[in-house]
Amino acid sequence: MNKADIVDILEDIAVLLELKGDNPFKIRAYSSGARVLEMMEEDLGDVIAEERLDAIKGIGSALVDKIKTLYATGELEYYTKLRESVAPGLIEMLEIPGLGGKKVKKLHDAIGVESIDALQAACESGEVEALKGFGKKSAEKILSGIANRAAYAKRHHWWNAREVAEPILEGLRSLSQVERAEAAGSLRRLRETVGDLDFIVATAEPKPVMDWFVEQDAVQEVTAHGATKSSVRFESGLQADLRVVPAEQFAFALHHFTGSKEHNVALRQRALARGYSLSEWGLSQKGEEGDPPTEIPDSITTEKELFQFLGLAEIPPELREGLGEIDSAEAQQLPNLVRPADIRGVFHNHTTASDGRATIEEMAAAAEALGWDYLGLADHSKASFQAKGLDDTRVLKQLESIRAFNESGESPVHIFSGIECDILPDGSLDLEDATLNALDYAVMSVHSSFSQSEEEMTARVIRAIEHPATTMLGHPTGRILLRREPYKIDLQKVIDAAIANRVIIEINANPHRLDMDWRLWRRAAGRGLMCAINPDAHSMEGLSYFDAGVNIARKGWLEKEQVLNSRDCIGVQHWFNQRK
I need a labelling partner for 47 at 20 to 30 A (CA). Which of 39, 464, 543, 579 fits? Predict the structure, then answer.
């Protein structure tokens, strides 16, 4: 097990102990140990092999054996038993925004709630409101969190859904009976969240394909097992549907089940206007009323051929949202969408200087492995104290470290020096102007006071955008998909300000954020707004999130010229210099 996973388990143990009301010193030992381990720059394997773990300040003897066991085996009996000793409902309550271990324990001890349903009832009856330390606003926030959790329960992050879908698709394609297989639905359209998985298979022998699908090891429940359609559910609650069709129907079924509904309706109307009926089974000519339809010859075997038959350029799945893509396809004016291969580097990333899990050298090595030319490092500023944010002195020290790394020539990846600077509640910035000006660029982000009114938040962000040192605006709505709603902000005014001040707005590619929303990009970029796709990586592995950001850029109709990351190192440096 790697260091990051061990850190997660130690933090989980601290929360579980808090739920059980254990000794505060013991709880603190685990949470402090997790932080120390997270910030340790040496290789954990080397430290363990050299028997130096117990010499590291902050990692007590109780943790040493547990860390060694987790590193060697990936399992810890103490952790397993601890999770089993806590009511599952209490652990689920931690999923509600604003509820930590202490509050959940207090609710449990004071009014006996052991489930989210019981907590909701206690909020609605006034019991929670009456508790010392809670009050009416707290009860309302808990109810709002419960409502959001219920509303989002049927959705799954695209990133997680893809991880489930890819081995299924690979397995289907490996079957000798399968001629063609594709994923469809919102996963294929690259939506930020996915309701369920849809797979379309062309085969003349459905039974062995269906049997393989329902007998996968990861399947928790078979909800349907038929001749042409089967459905299964996985442990996460994600459902997957498989439809099998004859080869001649495959292109039509794939298009239909990819959607969206709005796109399909528009394409069917186009087909009708030309005298054809389009469905998931195929395309037929409309005869006189009462006459049987005449089938179209078997000349359409791909979606591209279907679009061409209807006088259209091929529309990429991610654009099939019923938002004018058919008119653009008819005029041969679809965008040349940005691709993952166009990305030359990314800018909003963190190191062990703040709350990241990798050093400058490690992040550069990960960027090199991805084939990038450059990498921007933007650790937190001091207002983000929970993330060990940097004050002005530490920012300048980090800048010197980056310069030394670049001058060493040890990596072909150039490191750009940046910062993720907090936008304070009044719109002022968290660092001195001289500090910000010494850097290559600055990403300005909101991390606090989310409850401000729309007018206050909009004015706050625009004031930061108008600061000469601002290069980029980070995660502009603060949303966390399926968990936290965006704060109130007038994004149209923010976009106007960004264009006027030549400030970039990022697509935060973290799969839990994907902010700014794809629906806003087509018009904004058309007016001159520049985009940067940033993974907000806190680890080497987190750099791969850029893929999810490219998805959002593609759904937003963005071309490579509208994305700063598609420029080479000299082009990026030129852009930064022009902002000075």
Answer: 543
Return averaged pLDDT per consecutive 10 residues of the chain, 580 residues in all: 84 89 88 82 83 87 89 90 88 81 88 91 92 89 83 86 97 97 98 96 97 95 91 90 95 96 94 91 71 59 95 98 96 97 98 94 98 98 93 97 96 98 98 97 96 96 98 97 92 97 98 97 97 97 98 98 97 91
Alpha-helical runs (H) found in 439-545: 454-465, 491-500, 521-526
Domain end position, chosen among 212, 245, 278: 245
Q: Residue 127, Cα to own-chain centre: how many angstroms? A: 36
509 & 386 share domain: yes
Alpha-carbon dihedral sign for residues 505, 509, 514, 519: positive
- 537 lies in a domain? yes
Give domain status of residue 252, yes or no: no
Same-domain status, 500 and 467 = yes
Q: Are 116 and 92 in contact (CB under 8 A)?
A: yes
**Residue at which a domain ends, from 301, 330, 359:** 330
| Angstrom distances, CA of residue 133 to CA of 102, 143, 502 | 11, 16, 46
From 259, 260, 220, 261, select the one nearest 240 (Cα to Cα): 220
507 forms bridges with which residues in the sheet? Answer: 533
Q: Does residue 172 share a domain with residue 36?
A: no
Residue 10, Cβ density class (10 Å: 0-12 exposed, 13-18 middle, ≥19 buried): buried
CA–CA dist 39, 41 (Å, integer): 6
Claim to verify: residue 304 and residue 363 sit in the same structural domain: no
pTM: 0.82
**Phi, then psi, of 38 in degrees rounded to 5:** -60, -40
Q: Which two tokens stand for residue 452?
A: 């401000």
pLDDT of residue 298: 66
State the CATH number of the domain containing residue 276: 3.30.210.10
- How far, in Å, CA of 94 to CA of 446, rounded? 24
- What is the number of domains present in the chain? 4
State the pLDDT at residue 444: 98
Specify the 3-state DSSP secondary structure of 532.
Answer: strand
Q: Residue 250 falls within a domain, yes or no?
A: no
Could you tell me the residue range of the domain that residue 266 belongs to?
A: 262-330
